[in-house]
Amino acid sequence: MAELRINPVTGERVILSPRRAARPADLARPGDAQGGGRGLEAGCPFCPGNEAETPLEVMVRAPEGRLPDQPGWLLRVVPNLYPALEPGKRTGDGTASREPGLLQSSPVAGFHEVIIHSPDHHAGLAELDAQGVARVMEAYRDRVLAHRREPGIGYVQVILNHGGGSGASLSHSHSQVFALPFVPSRVELEMRRARAWRRRGGGCLFCELIEAERRGERLVLDEGGFIAFCAFAPRFPFETWLLPRAHASRFEGSDDAGLEALGEALRHLLGSVFRGLGDPPYNLYLHTSPCYAKASHPYYHWHFELLPRLAEWGGFEMASDTVICTVPPEEAAGLLRSRL
Amino acid sequence: MAELRINPVTGERVILSPRRAARPADLARPGDAQGGGRGLEAGCPFCPGNEAETPLEVMVRAPEGRLPDQPGWLLRVVPNLYPALEPGKRTGDGTASREPGLLQSSPVAGFHEVIIHSPDHHAGLAELDAQGVARVMEAYRDRVLAHRREPGIGYVQVILNHGGGSGASLSHSHSQVFALPFVPSRVELEMRRARAWRRRGGGCLFCELIEAERRGERLVLDEGGFIAFCAFAPRFPFETWLLPRAHASRFEGSDDAGLEALGEALRHLLGSVFRGLGDPPYNLYLHTSPCYAKASHPYYHWHFELLPRLAEWGGFEMASDTVICTVPPEEAAGLLRSRL
Fold first, then answer.
1. What is the mean pLDDT of the segment spanning A180-205?
2. What CATH number should be reported for the domain holding residue A70?
C-alpha cells in the first residue's frame, strides 16, 4: 500500500508510491510521450486489441453486444496498472497526521483509474469530435459519482496529462482519476478562500470573477453557458480557466445536455491552444467541491484549469512557491481568441 | 517594472515579468542547457573575455590589480540582463494586496543578480575545488547581507539551477539572487510552522529534525558541523536537505570558517549526486530567516534544499499541490551515501 507522509517543515502531503517506479519511463527525462501520425500502435496497452495488457475494465462506452475487454469500444476505463493508490481498508483523511509529531506517515488507500478517451492512439482530446469529447466528460462525471459513494473518500481528482513534458508517460490520449482519502491542499485552499470571500460579504468568488472577466481582455470564449479566460495571475504562460456561467458547486451534478455543451466549449478552447501554440504539452484538471460539502452550496464553483507546459519552474519557484511568468495573460488571451 | 499579481482564488503571488520573455530560450522546451567538454565557450556572456555582454559587475573575486569588467576574475556578480525584478521606488510587501479585492496587482521592485561561479564554462558547482565552492558560499552571504540593507527588501532568495530541465537558460554554472519586497509564501509557511512547533512546547523544529535524522537511514553525510539527509516527504526523488548541526537562524551570519566547512559538505553532497545520478539537472536553494526576524531567534534554522529534477510534476501535482513520489528517501540516501 502507498504511504502518506507529511513534510515536517511545511505540513505538505506526499504520497510515497514506490510501486509506480516499476514503470520504466518513471525517472526518464521529459519528452518521451509525443504523438505524430494516425491510427493504432502495436506496443500500446491502451490501443484496441491490447485490452489484455490492462486490468479489467470498470466502465466502458461501446455498441451493444460487444464483449467485455475486447475491441469495439469507444471509451474505456480501467484501473491503473501502476497505481499511485490502491483500494484497501479505510485509511485516515490526513487530519490526524496534522497533530504534533515530527515524522508522520500513514498507509493511504484509494483508487487510481485511467480513462482511455478513444480507440485512436494519436488523437488528443482537442482532435476528437464533439460527441467524443462529451463522452469523456460523461466518464469524468460517472467516475466521480462512483468514487464519491465509496467509504472514506474525501475527494476525487480528475486530471489529463497531454504530451511530453506534461508528466504523461503513455502517449495514447487518456485521463486519470484519483479517489483520495483526503481533500488535496490546493482544493482546500480554494474552498477556504471562497468561504472567506462570502463571509466578508461577497457572493460566490467565482461568479464575481466571471462577471469581471466576461467583457475583459482576458476572455477567450463565452458560449453555451461556459466561459473561458486566461488566469489573471497564471502559474504558467497561457493558463486558462473554464467555468460554467451559472453557479454550480459540483461538476458531477451536470446533466448530459450540460456535459455536451461543456464538451463543445472545451473542444474549442483546446483547439485554439492546439493551433495557437502548436499542440503543446498541457495539464488539464477538474476542481469540484469536496465530498464533505453539501450537494449545492453558495460559495464554491466547479471549474477546469488548463496549464500549457511551455515554461518550466526553476529554483526560484521551488524555493518560494512564487511564480515568475513572462507572458501577460491579456496577450495570451488575444492569441487564443484569434485561433478559435 | 514587473507587476505583482495575486491569484484571486488561491491568494498566491505571481510576478509578471514580460521583459524576460525577450530572452529567446524562454518558451523553449526543456533540455537546452546541457554541459559537456571543458573550457570556455565563445557565445557565452558569462565566459571570460565576454564581460561586456553583461551589466557592470557589482562584486568580484579577483587577484589584486585586475581591472573591473575584464578577464582575470575567479567569481563575478552582475545584475541579470533580463531581470525578473528591477530596482525602483519602494513597493508594497504584498500585504496590502491580501486585503479584499478581486483582481489585485501592484508594481514590484527589487534586485535580480547573477553569481558566475567560476571562469570555467563547463564546471558545475560539484566540480569546483573546495576553495571554489567556499568562494560561492561567501558570495551568497555577501549578496544577502548587501540586499538586506536596502530599504523595502523583505527577503533575499538565492537559488542555483543546474542543467537542462532545471529552469536554467544558460549552461555556464551560476546562481541567482532575488531581493524581494515580500517574504515568499514557502518561507513564510516554514516560519509559521516553526513558530507553532515552538509554541506547542517543542524546541527548534529543525534541531529536533536533525536529532531524529542524524543516526537514521535517511542520513547522507554528517561532517564539519553540517548534516545532510534525504527529505522524509520529498517533492522530488532524491530531495536532500543540508543544515548546520548547531542552531543558527541566519545563513548570512556565517563566518568564513563556517562557509569553508559548508562548502566542503556541499561539495561532497553534490559530488554524490553527480556520481550517483549521472550529473542530473537540479535546483539548489537557500532558506534563511526573513529580514523582519531578529538576527538570532530560537525557532528558524537556515538550510539548503537540493532538488534533483529527474521526475516531472504532472496534472495531479498541479491540481492538488500534493506530490506522488516513487523513490523512498531511505533508498535514495543509501545510494547517495555509497557515492560519497
1. 95
2. 3.30.428.10
CA distance B71 to B4: 37
3-state secondary structure of A233: coil
- Angstrom distance (rounded) from CA A6 to CA B233: 6
Q: What number is the average pLDDT over the span A91-109? A: 72
Judge if B239 and B289 occupy the same domain. Answer: yes
Q: Is residue A93 domain-shared with residue A226, that is, in the same domain?
A: no
Average pLDDT of chain B? 91
User: Looking at residue B20, what DSSP letter applies?
Assistant: G
Regarding whether B196 and B102 lie in a shared domain, the answer is no
Interface contact flag, B322 A16, Cβ < 8 Å: no
Residues of A in contact with B8 (CB under 8 A): 205, 209, 232-233
Q: A169: which 3 cell numbers?
A: 508517460
Is residue A109 domain-shared with residue A242, that is, in the same domain? no
Helices A256-277, A130-148: inter-axial angle, 10-degree rounding: 120
Query: Which amino acid is located at A94 in the chain?
Result: G
Q: Does B18 touch chain A (CB under 8 A)?
A: yes
Same domain, A276 and A327: yes
8 A C-beta contact, residue B288 and residue B296: no
Q: Is the ipTM of this complex over 0.90?
A: yes
Q: Is A149 left (phi over 0), alpha (psi -120 to 50) or beta?
A: alpha
Instruction: Look up residue B144 and give its three cell numbers.
Output: 544577502
Cβ separation A159–B185 shorter than 8 A: no
A77 has a chain B CB within 8 A of its CB: no
Helix or strand holding residue A230 (H, E): strand A226-230
**Cross-chain Cβ contact B233/A157 below 8 Å:** no
The answer to whether B75 and B61 are in contact (CB under 8 A) is yes
Residues of chain A above pLDDT 70, percent = 90
User: Which of A178, A194, A325 minimises the CB distance to B316?
Assistant: A178
Q: Does A286 touch chain B (CB under 8 A)?
A: yes
Percent of chain B with pLDDT over 70: 90
Task: Write phi, then psi, for B70 (nearest 5 degrees).
Answer: -125, 160
Say which residue the cell 451559472 belongs to: A246
pLDDT band per the 50, 70, 90 thresholds, residue A33: very low
Q: Please, are residues B157 and B180 in contact by the beta-carbon 8 Å criterion? A: yes
| The pLDDT of residue A35 is above 70 | no
CA distances from A83 to A16, A32, A107, B93, B265 (A): 11, 20, 14, 43, 38
**What CA–CA distance (Å, rounded) separates B326 from B84?**
33
The residue assigned the cell 558570495 is: B139
Q: Three cell numbers at A80?
A: 491503473
Selected residues 156-175 of chain B with any CB under 8 Å from a CB in chain A: 157, 159-161, 165-168
pLDDT per position as a tens digit, A281-312: 999 999 999 999 988 899 999 999 999 999 99
| Short-list B131, B129, B184, CA closest to B154 | B184
Instruction: State if pTM tops 0.90.
Output: yes
Within this chain, do residues B161 and B12 fall inside the same structural domain, yes or no? Answer: yes
Is there a single domain that holds both residue A226 and residue A295?
A: yes
